[in-house]
Amino acid sequence: MLTQTPRSLERDGLVTRTVTPTVTVTVTVTVTVTYELTGLGLSLHHVMRDIKVWAEVHMDEVLANREDYDTRIA
Protein backbone atom coordinates (compact mmCIF):
# COMPACT_ATOMS: atom_id res chain seq x y z
CA MET A 1 0.00 0.00 0.00
CA LEU A 2 2.84 2.37 0.85
CA THR A 3 4.29 2.06 -2.66
CA GLN A 4 0.98 2.54 -4.47
CA THR A 5 1.17 6.34 -4.83
CA PRO A 6 4.84 6.51 -5.91
CA ARG A 7 4.24 3.72 -8.44
CA SER A 8 1.19 5.55 -9.80
CA LEU A 9 3.26 8.71 -10.20
CA GLU A 10 5.94 6.70 -11.98
CA ARG A 11 3.32 5.08 -14.23
CA ASP A 12 1.94 8.52 -15.13
CA GLY A 13 5.42 9.74 -16.04
CA LEU A 14 5.60 12.30 -13.24
CA VAL A 15 8.60 10.75 -11.47
CA THR A 16 11.47 8.43 -12.28
CA ARG A 17 12.39 5.69 -9.82
CA THR A 18 16.00 4.62 -9.31
CA VAL A 19 16.98 1.54 -7.29
CA THR A 20 20.58 1.44 -6.09
CA PRO A 21 21.78 -1.75 -4.36
CA THR A 22 24.65 -1.40 -1.90
CA VAL A 23 26.72 -4.28 -0.55
CA THR A 24 28.19 -3.68 2.91
CA VAL A 25 31.35 -5.20 4.39
CA THR A 26 29.26 -7.92 6.03
CA VAL A 27 27.85 -8.78 2.58
CA THR A 28 24.45 -7.41 3.46
CA VAL A 29 22.68 -6.05 0.43
CA THR A 30 20.63 -2.95 1.06
CA VAL A 31 18.62 -1.09 -1.50
CA THR A 32 18.15 2.65 -1.79
CA VAL A 33 15.18 3.86 -3.80
CA THR A 34 15.07 7.46 -4.97
CA TYR A 35 12.41 9.34 -6.88
CA GLU A 36 12.97 12.39 -9.05
CA LEU A 37 10.46 14.62 -10.81
CA THR A 38 10.42 14.36 -14.58
CA GLY A 39 9.84 17.38 -16.80
CA LEU A 40 6.13 16.55 -16.76
CA GLY A 41 6.17 16.24 -12.96
CA LEU A 42 7.99 19.53 -12.63
CA SER A 43 5.41 21.28 -14.79
CA LEU A 44 2.67 19.95 -12.48
CA HIS A 45 4.68 21.06 -9.44
CA HIS A 46 4.58 24.65 -10.69
CA VAL A 47 0.79 24.49 -11.08
CA MET A 48 0.33 22.94 -7.63
CA ARG A 49 2.59 25.60 -6.10
CA ASP A 50 0.34 28.30 -7.57
CA ILE A 51 -2.75 26.54 -6.17
CA LYS A 52 -1.09 26.41 -2.74
CA VAL A 53 -0.36 30.13 -2.88
CA TRP A 54 -3.97 30.83 -3.91
CA ALA A 55 -5.25 28.73 -0.99
CA GLU A 56 -3.01 30.55 1.48
CA VAL A 57 -4.18 33.95 0.22
CA HIS A 58 -7.88 33.04 0.27
CA MET A 59 -8.14 30.62 3.21
CA ASP A 60 -9.65 33.15 5.63
CA GLU A 61 -12.37 33.95 3.10
CA VAL A 62 -13.06 30.26 2.46
CA LEU A 63 -13.31 29.54 6.19
CA ALA A 64 -15.66 32.50 6.69
CA ASN A 65 -17.86 31.24 3.84
CA ARG A 66 -17.98 27.79 5.44
CA GLU A 67 -19.04 29.31 8.75
CA ASP A 68 -21.76 31.38 7.07
CA TYR A 69 -23.03 28.34 5.19
CA ASP A 70 -23.04 26.11 8.28
CA THR A 71 -24.95 28.79 10.21
CA ARG A 72 -27.56 29.12 7.45
CA ILE A 73 -28.28 25.40 7.16
CA ALA A 74 -28.26 24.69 10.91
Automatic annotation (TrEMBL):
SUPFAM superfamilies on file: Winged helix' DNA-binding domain
Protein name: Winged helix-turn-helix transcriptional regulator
Domain called HTH hxlR-type: residue spans: 1-61
Domain of life: Bacteria
Pfam hit, one: HxlR
InterPro entries in alphabetical order: HTH_HxlR, WH-like_DNA-bd_sf, WH_DNA-bd_sf
